[in-house]
Amino acid sequence: MAKKGVKAQGMPLNVIVIAIVLLFVLVIILAIFKFNVGKFSKDVQSCAARAGRCVTADNQGSCPSREIKLEGVQCPSSQVCCLKVLEE
CB–CB of 65/55 below 8 Å? Predict the structure, then answer.
């Protein structure tokens, strides 16, 4: 049997509002992070970011002497990314 004069306790309205605002902020932070990571990974794959240079490859698809070819790096078509080897 319920006691008279005792009210049921519920979640206050301001707790609900704060939870909604925090959820909104979390979604915005995740969206910003996702788009910036995509841009970062694209920049890292460029030839210049790896200290190389895009050159027109010879008939065998290799770089000039004293340079090595970097695989999986973005260069314009018919060009390869070459990195100078340190001289002794």
Answer: no
